[in-house]
Specification:
The chain has 2 domains: 342 residues, no CATH class; 36 residues, no CATH class. Helix content is 66%, strand content 3%. The protein contains 15 helices and 4 strands. It is a multi-pass membrane protein.
């Protein structure tokens, strides 16, 4: 089976890729995408679950993908694996653009996404082995290809699901790709680092046009290839290493969109709705209902994602344990503190967005058994308790 070439590139190539993609998408690619969307009348109209008040052009992903190609082409020695990754991204973008224009059925979209993943898998971009604590190296054997298909398609749709707020998907993908670039450099995965830097630059270039009030949306033509690229670069740059916690890095960095999608899918299953049916149960929708502005909601989710990315980087760079298994005190303390901050930020989001119901807390024994409705959010119940305490005190 072909394998991914793990050549080491110098850091300037990573910087050049970032700058080229950023400049192209920010100055040329996005304005051209706006013009193309208007020419073809591929515009997202307001109404229904949508939260924008005026028609906004789609197809922003075309400029993003072209920017990634321009950022990578002069800065990395292409091998069969990364050529396949880039061709797959172009095809994923085309699939998304067609869906933006004519609304493909979920079955057709899923079939197309699976077909796009087969290109890099054929060239050895597979989750054939990863390293986890205690267990060590885990070899998937014959399950490598199907697991890889599921992983890439899942991450592509995770990004697509969260693209419902001005600037949200672009900002989260920029943070994730930038983190993968740093991790890939540290793991001597230079080609992956260049690709990740180009993705980060393209997302930031697009964000200037997409942050609220958005002048263009990336649409499926952007969300699907971005999710696909994040998945493939995490496989090629992080999972195919002997680094401890290699399987954890991508999951931590992408935890925000993963949590959002998981919550939405479980809600739809609970109420018997199709998984592909759009609704307003995403994290950003809950933030807007609680009074957040679009900008504040996006910035809050950026901050959460950045904290988690910081934890992943701390795990990689803090020298908390020797190869012999001895622990270093202060790096271990620092990692514990950063981990506590990441966990606290995640719990705060769950509490602030009223995701956790009071009955869930009561079920595991962390709340008094009082007569409270099963669907009352924990934060709402706490506010009710505080009002009762104030009233009794007065």
């Amino acid at each position: 089976m072909p394998t991914v070439v793990t050549d080491t590139l110098v850091e300037p190539s990573v910087i050049y890729a970032f700058v080229l993609a950023l400049a192209f998408v920010g100055v040329v690619g996005t304005p051209l995408s706006i013009a193309l969307a208007r020419l073809l009348r591929v515009v997202d109209e307001p109404g229904g679950r949508r939260i924008h008040a005026r028609p906004v052009p789609l197809l922003g992903g075309i400029g993003i993908v072209v920017g990634v190609l321009l950022g990578t082409a002069p800065n990395l020695p292409l091998n069969d694996a990364f050529t396949a990754i880039l061709i797959g991204a172009v095809l994923m973008c085309a699939l998304g653009a067609i869906d933006d224009a004519v609304q493909l059925s979920p079955a057709v979209k899923l079939t197309g996404q699976v077909a796009c993943t087969l290109l890099p898998i054929r060239e050895g971009v597979t989750i054939d082995q990863f390293t986890v604590p205690i267990l060590g190296a885990v070899d998937l054997g014959p399950a490598a290809a199907p697991v890889t298909v599921i992983f890439i398609v899942a991450i592509a749709n995770v990004v697509n699901f969260i693209d419902g707020l001005d600037g949200l998907a672009a900002g989260l993908c920029a943070i994730a790709a930038g983190t993968f670039a740093v991790l890939a450099v540290s793991l001597d995965r230079g080609t992956t680092a260049v690709l990740a830097a180009a993705v980060a630059g393209a997302c930031l270039g697009f964000l200037g046009w997409n942050f609220h009030p958005a002048r263009i949306f990336m649409g499926d033509s952007g969300a699907l290839p971005l999710g696909y690229l994040l998945a493939t670069m995490s496989i090629a740059g992080v999972m195919k290493t002997a680094a401890a916690l290699s399987v954890v890095f991508p999951l931590v960095v992408l935890l925000v969109p993963i949590v959002d999608t998981s919550f939405v899918v479980l809600k739809r299953l609970k109420y018997g709705r199709p998984i592909s049916a759009a609704d307003q149960n995403h994290l950003h929708h809950r933030m807007l209902r609680l009074g957040y502005s679009q900008r504040r909601a996006a910035l809050s989710l950026y901050a959460w994602c950045a904290v988690l990315a910081g934890f992943a980087l701390a795990v990689r760079f803090l020298d908390y344990r020797t190869p012999a298994g001895d622990w270093h005190l202060w790096p271990t303390v620092a990692l514990a503190v950063i981990g506590a901050v990441a966990v606290s930020a995640s719990l705060y989001v769950v509490y602030a967005l009223e995701i956790l119901k009071y009955r869930h807390v009561r079920l595991i024994g962390f709340a008094r058994r009082v007569d409270v409705g099963g669907e009352v959010p924990l934060s709402a119940h706490r506010r009710s308790e505080q009002r009762d305490e104030v009233a009794s005190g007065s």
